[in-house]
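Sequence design from tokenized structure. All designs in this work follow the same two-part layout: the structure record, then the generated sequence. An example of the structure record is given first.
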């Protein structure tokens, strides 16, 4: 039940008469609400555009680069260094998502490890293992890693990936501004 209005009279539990809450009425509210309506800022969405595919060596942990932003509320994403830096006064709990589309023209991908680095060290990872005949298709597979993380002002986050192929060939990390194949996004929860 949403309350549209509240009167200045006090409401008591199990009240009878003028201090009783009438659920069918509207009540004027003259107080202040705190802690409601969070803005989820800062927030960002960085991606690889269609012109920027990244060629990475097999079984090598590699930082994923981004060349475009859909939005950056709070100006925390640094495209020059491919990282999100928590703005001053914006520490808190954040939701983060790193999604990556891989492609191997000559072989199937054996395994993929995705990392979100915090201040230069792996803070979380997600591993996908295709193995032998169940390997991921060479035409391209999309992998994703999401996490909630406690961050302080000036903490910085980067995305890394390690892909291993059956033939030791290189892998492409695909970009596309329209379908958003590879991106890093996040926002402050509270």
């Amino acid at each position: 039940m949403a309350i549209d209005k509240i009167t200045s009279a006090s409401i008591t539990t199990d009240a009878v008469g003028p201090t009783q809450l009438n659920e069918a009425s509207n009540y004027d509210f003259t107080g202040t609400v705190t802690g409601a309506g969070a803005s989820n800022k800062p927030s960002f969405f960085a991606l690889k555009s269609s012109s920027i595919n990244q060629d990475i060596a097999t079984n090598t942990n590699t930082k994923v680069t981004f060349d475009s932003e859909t939005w950056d509320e709070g100006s925390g994403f640094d495209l020059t260094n491919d990282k999100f830096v928590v703005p001053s006064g914006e520490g808190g709990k954040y939701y983060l998502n790193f999604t990556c589309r891989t492609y191997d023209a000559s072989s199937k991908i054996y395994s993929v490890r995705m990392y979100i680095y915090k201040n230069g060290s792996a803070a979380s990872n997600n591993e996908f293992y295709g193995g032998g005949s169940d390997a991921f298709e060479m035409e391209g597979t999309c992998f994703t890693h999401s996490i909630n993380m406690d961050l302080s002002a000036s903490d910085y986050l980067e995305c890394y990936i390690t892909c291993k192929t059956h033939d030791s060939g290189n892998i492409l990390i695909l970009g596309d501004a329209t379908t958003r194949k590879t991106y890093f996004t996040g926002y402050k929860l509270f």
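The radius of gyration is 24 Å. We note this feature because it recurs in several other targets discussed in the main text.
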